[in-house]
Every structure is written in C-alpha cells, then in structure tokens.
Backbone:
C-alpha cells in the first residue's frame, strides 16, 4: 500500500513499531515517513517506538531561551525555521518566546487590522503575478484570499493559466504545500492544490511539516449531526477537535463551508490530546467521502449503537464525565 493512502486508524502502536524499525535515526524516520512519525507523536508513543535508534532525544529543558535564539538565527523566515528545526520552533511557541527569537526574520507579523483594502492594494502593486505575491508577501495574500479580494487587487497582474491536470500531480501539490505553515492557510490560498491533494489521498503526507491544528488547543472533542444528510440510509455525523476558548466556532465554520445545518450531540473538554480520541472515533461507521471543504474527511454515517460507542469513548476521557 502506498504510504500516502493509509486508511485512517492504520497507525496503531504495532504498525508504528514495525515502521520505525526500518530506520536508524529519528531524523531518517521523519524524512522517509513523516505521516507515521507525526502519528507516533500524536499518540505519545514516539519514544517507545524509537528506542532502538541511535539519535538521542533532546533532554527535557534543553531548549533554553539562549539555545532557541542561537537556533533561530540559522534561518531567515519562520517557515524555514519550522521546516528545518521543528522541535525548536515548537518549543519557542510553548515558551511564548517565538516572536522574540524570530525578530531578525524577514517576515514580520503586522498588527491586527493592518491589512485593509488600501494596504492590500498597495502591497499587491509590488508584484507582477500572483505567484510572486504569494511567495514574498504571504500574510497579505492569505488575507486577500480570505476576504475574496484577490481578483480586485491583482487585476494589474499578468495572467498565468496552469495546464489542465496541474494540481493532479503529487509533486506540484507537495511543492505548493511547502509555502504554508498550516492546512487552513493552504486551503484558503490555493484551494485547487489543496483539494487535488485531498482527493488523491496525498494531503496528510504533503502537510507533515505543518503545525497540527494551530488554531486549536486540541482540548475539546465534539460530535454534531448533519441535519438532513444520510449515507447508506444512516444519519451522518461530524467528529472533530477544537478548544475551550473557541467554543463551537469550529463547528459553525465547517457547517457553513459545507452548506449544512447542524445539531450538536456532544462538545466536551477532555483530559488527553483530543486528536488521540479523534483517531479512534474515525474508525467507527461508514465514510460518506465528502470533498471540497475543510473537515470533509471527518464525517461518518453511524448506527445508533455506533453513535453511543462514540459518546462513551469521549465521556471516558471527559473533564466532566457526567
């Protein structure tokens, strides 16, 4: 089976251990099979499956402010920092010093509200085509895409139509994905590449360098019913993760993008990383294989028994199980 087409739930402790045994170091494991490496991290079994490897894990407390500053100075952009030294990048975020250690980098975050229509137009005028705009001023490009202003502010740019089937090529999608640090940014800026990768089963593999659900603390699991939707004559439900601080914003966002009405079955804070529970939930039911919007792969058609099993699984790890 191709690594990029692993079914959800494939990565168990046993399959991860078998995969890890193929590699001599963690860096080789990450490079050769990023999906398995990331799954081992999400399931908190990476140390366990990598015990035979010669490359030692950094001891707790290794990433001090001084070491993070020295490491960050090797890179000119945050994206390069994240891709080439993911552990340090993550530690800087956890220690809330990422802005400090990245202050020398070329892409400085603009204050909230900076990207008005006027500022976006002025920024876009610096470039002759959308590709250069996206590469050299990604925050402005993403903001314009989200506000549906790209066509308006890029009207002066040279047209450049890609050949038919361009985003059905894995290498093209992978190269495009490297420009972004999270899936949301990728899907907003280039929905054609994102959906091409999703449809062909490459998305997990080409997004392994990205932050995992960066807009969420991943401390909440939810189930909602897609009102009026059935698959194999069974009601369709959406599993997902979010955070306490976001409440039901993620639910509303996915439902809106999918043009669905929803009814929340359960939305609760959990004591473990919510992604660990989601992996188990997605083993239940039948996949209706929705496409074309963020979160489409997390819908399942469930029997009443499967729904109760899902609720029981979540409540077992709930902060307030009753």
Residues:
């Amino acid at each position: 089976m191709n690594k990029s087409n692993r079914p959800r739930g494939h990565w168990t402790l046993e399959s991860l251990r078998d995969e890890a045994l193929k590699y001599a170091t963690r860096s080789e494991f990450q490079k050769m099979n990023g999906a398995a490496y990331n799954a081992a991290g999400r399931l908190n079994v990476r140390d366990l499956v990598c015990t035979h490897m010669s490359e030692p894990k950094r001891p707790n407390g290794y990433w001090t402010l001084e070491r993070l500053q020295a490491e960050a100075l090797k890179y000119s952009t945050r994206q390069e920092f994240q891709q080439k030294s993911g552990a340090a990048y993550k530690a800087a975020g956890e220690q809330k010093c990422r802005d400090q250690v990245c202050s020398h980098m070329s892409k400085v975050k603009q204050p909230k509200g900076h990207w008005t229509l006027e500022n976006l137009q002025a920024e876009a005028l610096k470039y002759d085509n959308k590709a250069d705009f996206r590469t050299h001023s990604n925050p402005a490009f993403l903001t314009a895409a989200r506000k549906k202003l790209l066509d308006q502010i890029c009207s002066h740019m040279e047209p450049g139509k890609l050949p038919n089937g361009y985003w059905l090529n894995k290498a093209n999608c992978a190269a495009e994905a490297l420009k972004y640090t999270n899936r949301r940014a990728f899907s907003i800026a280039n929905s054609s590449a994102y959906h091409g990768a999703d449809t062909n089963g490459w998305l997990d593999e080409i997004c392994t360098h990205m932050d995992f659900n960066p807009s969420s603390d991943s401390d909440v699991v939810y189930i909602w019913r897609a009102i009026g939707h059935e698959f194999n004559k069974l009601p369709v439900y959406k599993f997902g993760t979010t955070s306490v601080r976001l409440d039901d914003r993620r639910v509303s966002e996915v439902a809106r993008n999918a043009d669905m009405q929803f009814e929340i079955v359960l939305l609760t804070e959990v004591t473990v990383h919510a992604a660990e529970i989601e992996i188990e939930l997605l083993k239940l039911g039948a996949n209706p294989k929705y496409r074309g919007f963020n979160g489409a792969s997390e819908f399942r058609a469930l029997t009443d028994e499967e729904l109760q099993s899902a609720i029981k699984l979540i409540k077992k790890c709930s902060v307030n199980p009753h």
In short: Residues 1-5 have pLDDT under 50 and may be disordered. The beta strands are 220-231, 234-242, 262-269, 299-301. Residues 304-315 form the longest helix (12 residues).
